[in-house]
Amino acid sequence: MSLFTVLFGQFVVFQTLPTDVVEIYDGPSTDSALLSSIYGSHSGETLPLSSGNKITLKFTANGTYTAKGFHFVYQAVPRTSATQCSSVPEPRFGKRIGNDFGIGMVVLFECNPGYTLHGSNGIRCEAVPNALAQWNGTVPTCI
Question: What residue stretch is flagged as signal peptide (predicted)?
Answer without folding.
Answer: 1-18
